[in-house]
Amino acid sequence: MNEVGKKIWKTGLSLTFGAVAIVLAIGLLLRPKLDLTPAEPSHLPWLTDLPKALEQAKAEKKWVFLNFGGSDWCAACIVLDKKIFNTREFAAFAATNLVLVDIDLPLKKPQPEALKQANLKLSDQFNANPLPCLILLDSDGKEVFRMEGYEGGSPKKFVAAFQQAIERAKKRDVPRTK
């Protein structure tokens, strides 16, 4: 390559890198900001005691919904709380089908030591990793469905996934006649 060709190549390369840098900068400026401030507490009746939740589920013929999350550090958990748990769709579904149990594993948010230890124990017992980890139990405490992580989606799709899991679990428990 002669001197003129080298100069043209270097100029083209510089312009290409400059254009890429400008596009990246504009993309960063225009991208939607993710609000990671913890959600307002929902008005749903979240329990923190699994044995009491199992008793209530048996009495009311409902399913137990375990929500393992990190309310003050887990971005996906915070988004899930805002975009799903604080919606009418989820509230209506929960009211008729679920006993809700919040198993919070915060880093900075104060928690009574007994609750902190109980939540860590449940997290180990159910191998709740990654967070958020959502587990559906029958009223005997048997796991029937698990959703790990949250990558978005509408409340309608979220509720539908758990409705389908409940329907599948009911079909498994139907006594079969010969």
Write the topology of this structure.
Layout: H1 3-30, H2 50-60, E1 63-69, H3 75-85, H4 88-97, E2 98-104, H5 113-125, E3 133-137, E4 143-148, H6 155-173
Parallel strand pairs: 1-2
Antiparallel strand pairs: 1-3, 3-4
| Structural class designation | alpha+beta
Number of strands: 4
Report the mean per-residue pLDDT as an integer. Answer: 86
Order of neighbouring strands in the sheet with most strands: 2-1-3-4
Question: What does the main sheet amount to?
Answer: 4 strands, mixed
Q: Stretches where pLDDT falls below 50 for ≥5 residues? A: none
Number of helices: 6
User: Could you tell me the radius of gyration in angstroms?
Assistant: 24 Å
Query: N-to-C SSE series?
Result: HHEHHEHEEH
Q: Helical percent range?
A: 40-55%
**Range of strand content:** 5-15%
N/C terminus separation:
85 Å
Shape: elongated
Q: Notable features of this structure?
A:
single chain, 178 residues, alpha+beta, four-stranded mixed beta sheet, elongated
Give an overview in words:
Strand 3 and strand 4 form a beta hairpin. By secondary structure, this protein is of the alpha+beta class. It is elongated, with a radius of gyration of 24 Å. The chain has 6 helices and 4 strands; from the N terminus they run H-H-E-H-H-E-H-E-E-H. Helices cover about 50% and strands about 15% of the residues. It has a 4-stranded mixed beta sheet. The protein has helices at about 5-30, 50-60, 75-85, 90-95, 115-125, 155-175; strands at about 65-70, 100-105, 135, 145-150. The longest helix has 28 residues, at about 5-30. The protein starts with a helix and ends in a 5-residue tail after the last helix.
